[in-house]
Amino acid sequence: MESAVKSRGAMRLKKALDFMGLPPYASESQVRARYRELLRLNHPDKGGSPDEFRRVQSCYKFLLERLGGQEVGSGAEVGRTPGAKGEHHGPAVAPKRDPVGEPQAIRQGEEDSQQVVVSSDLKDLGDEAYGEGEYERAVEYYNAAAAYSRFDNLVNYAELLYARAKAHLAAGNEGKAVSDAKRSMEARPIWGEAYALAGQIQLKLEDWLGARATLEKALQLLRDQRDLLDAVRADLAVACKAIEEKFCVSSLRGHAGEVVQVSFLPESALIPNSLGSRLKAEKIIATASLDGTLRVWSCASGACLHTLRGHSAPISSFQWCPDGSGTLVSASEDSMAKIWQISRESCRLLRTIQGHEAGLTHVAFDKYGSMFSTSSEDGSACIWDLETGLLLHRLEGHSGKLNKGAFHPGGRAFVTASDDTTAKVWDLGGDVEDAGGCIHTLEWGDGQVKDVEYTPDGRFILMATRKAGTVSPFFRLLLFSSVSGRICRWFDGHSATITCLSWNPSQLVAEWATLATSSLDGTLKLWDIRAEPTGSGSYSLESDEAQGRALKPWEKPKLFEDIESMFEGALFCVAYSPDGEYLCAAGLDNHVRIFDSQTLEQVQDCCGHSGWIRSLAWADDGSIVVSASSDGTARIWNVLKP
C-alpha cells in the first residue's frame, strides 16, 4: 500500500516537472522565470487556454507543496487571478546547489536557502528512467537527488550511489561508475551488493588486483545471498585467471604431496665457472615435498630435470652447497640425510648420512660449504664433513626437540634452538672449550625457541621464542651477545607464533641490520636490530592489510590445531630480494605479496595457488620469485619492478 502511494507520488512529480519543462535540479530563479513565462503564454486574455492556465497553476502549487515550499494560506498565495493585487509567485521548488555538494537542512525565511528535497521521489524517477533504458536521464535524476536532498541515514545514500553507479556503467562511464560504487561501499561497509558491483566494474577496467580484493570481500558479505554468490564467484575466477596470466610464468607440477620448500641453485663468487654460474640463465631450483622426493627444475623452460628418490618419509629440509657446485643435502623425517650431486644432464646420490635416532628437522651449511649440520627431534645436532661424510661433532645437551641450527659467519661456532626453552652455542674450533663443547646456554623466560640466527656480522644471536597457553602468552625476539652470552635486547610486537626471519642483504656490513618477520597473526614487521640501547625494543614498520579476523579453533588447518592464535592472513614465510629493495611474504590465504622494503607498501599481489604457501625463494637477479604450496605445486612469478 505504502509503496503504491509512493510510486503514484513520484509519477505525479515527474509529470509536473515535465509539464513545466523543468529538470529535476532546477534552481529557484529558473522555476520563477519558467512559471511567469507559462502564465503569460497561457493567459486567457491573451488567447491562452483556460485549461492549460489552470494546469500551470495546479502543477506549480503541487510542486510547492510536495517539495517543501510554502502552502496556500501561509502568506504566499498561489493561483490568484493574474493581475490581482499582491500577486506572489512563491519560493522555488529546488535550491541552488551548495558549492560543497552536500545536502543541507532548510533555512526558513532566507532568500535562495537550501531546501530539503524528497530524495526518494527523485531516486524513484531515476529508477524508472533506468528501467526504460534512459541511462543519461537516470543519472540526471540521481544527480539531483544527491545534490539537493538530505538523507536520514547512510543506507539511503549508499543505495542512491549504488543506483547511480549502475546507470553510469550502463551508459559506458566506467570511471564514474567505479567511483560511485566505492563511495557506496564506504557509506555502507557491510553491504555486499556494493562490493559485487564495484568488483564487476573493476573487471571492465582491467583492474585485476582491485577486482579480486573487492570480490573476495563481497563473498564474505554475501554468504546468505545465494542468488548473487554464483555471479560473484564467476567474476572472481575471471580476476584470478587474469592475475595468473599476468604474473605467473609457470606452474611446476609433479609432486604427489605438499611442497614444503623451494631454493635456487646459488652462484658462487668463490669458485669460477661453478655449475650455478654456468646455468645462470636456466635459473635452476629444487623443491622438496611431503611425498619424500625432491625435484630439480629449470625456471627458464618450466621442465623437471630430475626427481630425487631415496627417502622413506617426508622431506623436512634441504639446502644447496653455497659454493654453487650443484651439491645438495636433504634431511628427512626418516632420520637420514642424503648428499646428492646435481648437473644439467644427471643427478646421483653420493652418500646417505645416518647418526640420529629420530626424524631430522633442519639442515644447514657453513659459509664456505665445507661442512653441514643436521638437527633432530632426538635433541641432538651433528656436524658433518661434506667431502668425506664423516661425523665431526655430535652436539648433545638439549632436553627437547631441536627446531633449527645455524653456523656463525666465521664457521667456528654453531647455535641450536630447542623446544626445551633454550638455545645453546657450541665451539666448533676449540677456541674457548674443547671442540664440540657448549660455550653458552641462552635462556630468558620460558618460551620455546622456534628459530635462531646469527646477525650478519656474527656479533649477536637472535632467537624467536613462543610461549603458548592462555595465561600471559608471548611471541618474542631475544638478542644475545655471541661472545658473552648475555641478553642485550628483547622485542615484543607479534600476537602469535613468529614463523620466519629474513635479514636485509644490503646491510651485511652495517653496524645494525634490518630484520623482517612473518607471523601467524597475519602481520609483517620490520625491526632495527642493534645492541644499543639495551632493554626493550619495538618494530619500526608493520603491514597488517591482509591480516583478516582471528580463526575459530575448527577453522584452523589440521597442522595448526594446537596453535593458540591464528588469523585468516597468517603468514608462513618472508624473504628479502637479493638487493634488499623488496620483501615477499605468503601464507594461509594462498597469495604471494611483494612489498617495498622501505615503506611496506604492497606493490604486487599474485594468486593462483589453491593451497597455503610454505616457502619462497628469489632468483639472484631479483626478476622472479618462486612459491611452494600445499596444493602440490610450485609457481614462478614475474616481479614487475617500476
UniProtKB/TrEMBL annotation:
Coiled coil: 205-235
Keyword Repeat: yes
Compositionally biased intervals (Basic and acidic residues): 85-100
InterPro entries on file: DnaJ_domain, J_dom_sf, TPR-like_helical_dom_sf, TPR_rpt, WD40/YVTN_repeat-like_dom_sf, WD40_PAC1, WD40_repeat_CS, WD40_repeat_dom_sf
Region listing for Disordered, in residue ranges: 73-118
Transmembrane regions: none
Pfam families, per the entry: WD40 (PF00400)
Keywords of the record: Coiled coil, Repeat, WD repeat
SMART domains found in the cross-reference section: DnaJ, TPR, WD40
Signal peptide bounds: none
Placement of WD repeats on the sequence: 285-307, 308-350, 353-394, 395-428, 491-530, 564-605, 606-642
Domain of life: Eukaryota
Name this protein carries in UniProt: WD40 repeat domain-containing protein
Annotated source species: Chloropicon primus
